[in-house]
Amino acid sequence: MDEIRRLFAAYIASHPVVETAFWLTALILAAVVVNFVVKVALVRILNRLISGLSFINGPDLVKSGVIARLANAAPAMVIASWIDAVPGLPAGIALIVRNVANAFNILVFALALTALLKLGEKLWQQRANGTGRSVKGYVQIAIIVVYVIAAILMVAAILDRSPMILLSGLGALTAVLLLVFQDTLLSLVASIQISSTDIVRVGDWIEIPTMNANGTVRELSLYSVTVRNWDNTYTTFPVRKLVSEPFKNWRGMQESGGRRIQRALYIDQNTVRFLTDAERAEFSHLRRLTDFIAERTKEIDAWNARLGPAAAIPANRKRMTNLGIFRAYVENYLRDHAAIRQDMLLMVRQLAPGSDGLPLEIYCFTSNTALADFEATQSDIFDHLLAILPDFGLNVFQAPSGRDFSSLSSDLQADRAAQAAPKA
Fold first, then answer.
1. Mean pLDDT in residue range 188-214
2. Which CATH architecture fits 195-250?
3. Which residues form the Mechanosensitive ion channel MscS domain (predicted)?
């Protein structure tokens, strides 16, 4: 055995290339063995230990692959540490191999750090569920910064130069970098403004007519916003549009618990008139008008009593109108409605009359903010008002249709026939 060892050593000494290849192969085999031991043994053991820890979300940490990515640095570290010990290897080649191995290690650590950042984003979303606040934009910014720093360090490691030398040369490329990363910088500023002012969150219902977006925010990232519209389509637009374009956020309505009804009944002005005493007495039996008519009657009687003999002239007297009675009925009806918020603004008002009639606007808030419930409540209210409107001697204004002209033509023909008939 000693003789064989002596002969092998003599052969290696007389053939330096073989010696270099031998030790280089041994170094590669050592790196392979270290890689196998670290990934198969240590990584699996660490993953099993960490997966059982609940206070650091062990299963999520294992799934993120942070430890597995860090394990890739072990063989490169072996090569970088022992490449100079290989006899006969040119110094230039050893330097290149060591620098490449160091650059590879920097890349591995950068990938592990980005995986850790994504894990932090996932944990944030789990704990901040329901708040709508998203940190995806900040995570993307951090990932970009990590990759930029990693790229500078890798180039510096390969060239075997100080990173400060590379950074000093970036000053001349500032204008080019600003042009290349223009969208990124604008998106970064917009993301900071959105986060600091809290104008938009994930889950908000927003409406942006210029972007054809009307729905809930599904994703709010560094570069783009994804909105799921009510027709189940998706609209994606740059995040900077949220600070440069006008939009409506319905979050305030949802948080307040009241959704506005603002709709008008167009009254035919020809049907507005004063009430007779008999009609006033009849309306006083309506539960929603009893108190109003009693109080209003006292005011009117007191006013007319002060007029004295002048009250005999109808134009001088104060009287109730069917429209005023109906307006009071609508307001009291809304105040009795279980689905109307009584702590929010509620009023029934007249708008400026026009060719479409006299608008009687209903302005109130429902306690149901969901679209289907809101529309059902609004429809029930106007169903009732339209049905009871004729009881007050009022009609809804409606543009004449073909049926109306046909009825008018029939009436004219009947009048002509009656006039042409011989008198008895």
1. 85
2. Roll (2.30)
3. 183-251
Rounded to whole angstroms, how far apart are CA atoms 110 and 150? 6
The whole model's pTM is what?
0.60
Give the residue extent of every domain in the chain. 2-177, 195-250, 259-400
Place of tokens 């319905």: 250
DSSP assignment of 234-259, as one string? EEEEETTHHHHS--EETHHHHHHT-E
- Residue 350 predicted with pLDDT over 90: yes
Query: What is the pLDDT at residue 79?
Result: 83
| Least confident window among 55-59, 220-224, 238-242 | 55-59
Spatial CA neighbour of 293 closest among 272, 279, 312: 279
φ/ψ of residue 268, rounded to 5: -70, 115
Residue type for position 356: D
Token pair of 399 as six digits: 């543009």
d(CA 47, CA 53): 10
Enumerate residues 6+ apart whose C-beta is below 8 A from 222: 136, 137, 140, 141, 184, 187, 188, 191, 239
